[in-house]
Write a structure and sequence with these properties.
It is a single chain. The chain is an alpha/beta fold. It has one domain: Vaccinia Virus protein VP39 (Rossmann fold, 3-Layer(aba) Sandwich), CATH 3.40.50. Helices cover 21% and strands 29% of the residues. It contains six helices and 14 strands. The strands form three sheets. An eight-stranded mixed β-sheet has the order 4-3-2-9-10-13-11-12. Strands 5-8-6-7 form a four-stranded mixed β-sheet, with no helix packed on it. The chain has a two-stranded antiparallel ribbon with strand order 1-14. The two termini are 20 Å apart. InterPro entries: FkbM_mtfrase, SAM-dependent_MTase, SAM-dependent_MTases_sf.
Length: 221
């Protein structure tokens, strides 16, 4: 995501991440929320969740980051999750039978709604879930009621439409007052109308009810 070279100028107090992978953004979020702000990170791929925990531990953020080996969805239960030995970052919930190839494996994982995690609030949610974002946000309806919440997510209408009606999904978000910005390669934010989101592919998006801005991150070295 474009956040590698930029960060939102947003004073988040509690963060949630779905599709945390190795923990790059988990650590960045933990640093951003400070010592009093919790971060909840979910990673359903068992090959990655151990590395995620190590990233949190090595950066001494165990006290403020909770790591969960679950898949976020719109309902609790079990679901089929597709992982790849070659592309470790491409894990996703299974929706198409023919999408299973020689380098992939289907595993059974626990699913959970973000609203059921016992979180008092969320000020920032980051999603990178290979098309499951509509289901995840449906399961976070209560958390989304925070008027100051900011959501940053990978946006692929092609992947999302396998799991939800894009006009209905975008209409549901817009009906709650969310506005949309596309994150450009330069880290600039381009305002998007709701109808433009229905067919938008291959980019990162910020959603908020209030204007947002991005400022460059300082180098980590």
């Amino acid at each position: 995501m474009a956040g590698r070279s930029a960060r939102l100028d947003h004073a988040a107090r509690a963060g949630v991440e779905v599709g945390a992978n190795l923990g790059y953004y988990t650590v960045a979020m933990a640093r951003r929320v400070g010592s009093d702000g919790p971060v909840t990170a979910l990673e359903a791929n068992p090959r990655l969740v151990g590395l995620l925990r190590r990233s949190v531990d090595l950066n001494a953020y165990n006290g403020r980051v909770r790591v969960l080996d679950q898949a976020a969805a719109d309902a609790p239960g079990r679901l089929s999750f597709v992982t790849s030995r070659r592309h470790s970052g491409g894990g996703h919930t299974r929706v198409v039978e023919s999408a299973i190839g020689a380098e992939t494996e289907v595993i059974d994982v626990e699913s959970v709604r973000l609203d059921d995690l016992g979180l008092a609030r969320a000020d920032f949610i980051r999603l990178d879930a290979e098309g499951s974002e509509p289901l995840i946000l449906r399961g976070a309806a209560r958390l989304l009621q925070n008027p100051d919440i900011v959501v940053c997510l990978e946006w692929s209408a092609i992947q999302m439409q396998c799991r939800a009606s894009m006009p209905e999904f975008v209409g549901w978000l817009a009906g709650q007052g969310f506005r949309f910005w596309k994150i450009e390669e330069t880290a600039a934010l381009t305002p998007m109308e709701a109808h433009q989101m229905i067919d938008l592919n291959g980019c990162d998006v910020v959603m908020s009810r209030r204007p947002v801005k991005i400022r460059p991150m300082r180098p980590a070295y």
